[in-house]
Amino acid sequence: MINRVKEERVSQKISQEELSRKSGVARAIISGLESGRVSTTTTETLEKIAHALGRKVTEIFFWI
Asked: Which residues of 6-45 are buried (b: 16+ CB within 10 A; e: fewer)?
């Protein structure tokens, strides 16, 4: 899975902590997704993050 979480988060000028609060996803998961340490998560988590960023899941996460 490739993701653009960090790119989108930085472009919106929000911190990992703010994204965590807005999405209801633990900051550790967001950090792990951004760094590549976490490569597997639930569809619900992907949806929460995308929604908090005002994007569709397919705009943030994609599989190659």
From this structure: eebbeeeebebeebbeebebeeebbbebbeeebeebeeeb
Q: How far apart are CA 28 and CA 58, in angstroms?
A: 22
> Model confidence over 1-59: pLDDT tens digits?
689 999 999 999 999 999 999 999 999 999 999 999 998 899 999 999 999 999 999 99
Q: Angle between the 27-35 and 43-52 helix axes, to the nearest 10 degrees? A: 90
Look up the pTM and report it.
0.91
How many residues can be counted in the chain?
Answer: 64
Are 9 and 33 contacting, i.e. CB atoms less than 8 angstroms apart? no
